[in-house]
Amino acid sequence: MAAVPGGREGPVAGAVPVFLYHSVAVDPPSWIAPFTVSPRTFAEQLGMIVDSGLRVVPLRSLVAAQRGGEALPERAAVLTFDDGFADFRATVLPLLVRWRLPATLYVTTGGLGGGPEDGPFPPGSRMLSRGQLGELDAAGVEIGGHTRTHPQLDVLPGGPLREEVGECGRELADVLGHEVTAFAYPHGYSSRAVRARVREAGWTSAAAVREAFSSAADDPWRIARLMVRADTDRDRFREWTRGAGAPVAPFPEGVRTKGWRAYRRTRARLHVPYEAIA
Questions:
Q1: Does the 18-269 domain belong in CATH 3.40.50.1980?
Q2: In this structure, are residues 260 and 188 in contact, taking their beta carbons and an 8 Å threshold?
Q3: pLDDT per residue over 153-204, tens digit each?
Q4: Residue 143, beta-bridge partner list
Q5: What's the predicted TM-score (pTM) here?
Q6: Other C-beta atoms within 10 Å of 203: how many?
Q7: How far, in whole angstroms, is CA 45 from its chain's centroid?
Q8: Domain range list for the chain
Q9: Which GO terms fall under molecular function for this chain's record (predicted)?
Q10: Among the listed residues 208, 204, 211, 203, the one whose alpha carbon sits nearest the alpha carbon of residue 223
Q11: CB-based contact 142:105 (threshold 8 Å)
Q12: What is residue 118's DSSP assignment?
C-alpha cells in the first residue's frame, strides 16, 4: 500500500473522504475477508456518514471541482466500491436507495459472472453478472473500469498495460451500451507512465488509494481514497467523517512508495511477482 505522510490532528477544511469498499457480506471467502464489512456494519457506517452532516456527492462532482468547475458543497464525501462483488446488488444497492446516496462501482471485467477458472479472482468468488451490471447502471449507479484481470499496473510492460486499460473500457461499453469514463487502479498502484496510459485510453478520472482524504485540489488521475476494512473500528470511521485522522491530498509520492514499486518490479522481472489482493 502506498505510504503517505502522517495524519493531522483535528478536522481539516476541504478534506473530502472518498470511501473505498470491496465486499459487504456476512460470509466472505477468506481471500477477501480482511477487506469485507458486514451488512450491519455497512448500514451503521452509512448512518454515521449522514448523521455527521457529510453530503455524499457523485464522483463526477468531485472530478469537476478538481478540474476547476463547480465547487463542491461543504463537507462533501464520495462512496466507491471496487471489483464487482455480487453483494453490491443484493446488499449495498438497497441501502443506497434507502439513504438516497450516489455511488461509483469499479468493475474488473474478467471477473463478471465469476469468470473462468483461471480468471482474476479465486474460484467460487461471488461476482456480478453482466445482466446485473446493466441493472445497476439503469438504477443510477455509476459504473467504472477496474481493468480486465486486476493486475498491478505499475509493473506491466507496455502491451499488456494498454490491453488491461483499454479493453476494460470497451468491454464495459459493450455491456452497458454507453461509454464509461471513471477508472480505478487495482491495489491502488499506479505510476506516471500508467497514469499517462489511462489518460490516452480515454478515461477522464482515476482513483488510487493513498489512505488519505481527497480534495478539490487533488489530482483527478490519482484520487485519494480511504479504504474501509474489516478492522476499521467505529472510532476511526467517525474520525474520518469529521475530516480528521488522515492527510489530505495532493502530496508528493513518498520514498517508501517508490521503493515498494521498485521491489515489486524486480520480483516481476524475476518471474516471482508479489501476490497482492484487493
A1: no
A2: no
A3: 999 999 999 999 999 999 999 999 999 999 999 999 999 999 999 999 999 9
A4: 105
A5: 0.91
A6: 23
A7: 17
A8: 18-269
A9: hydrolase activity
A10: 208
A11: yes
A12: T
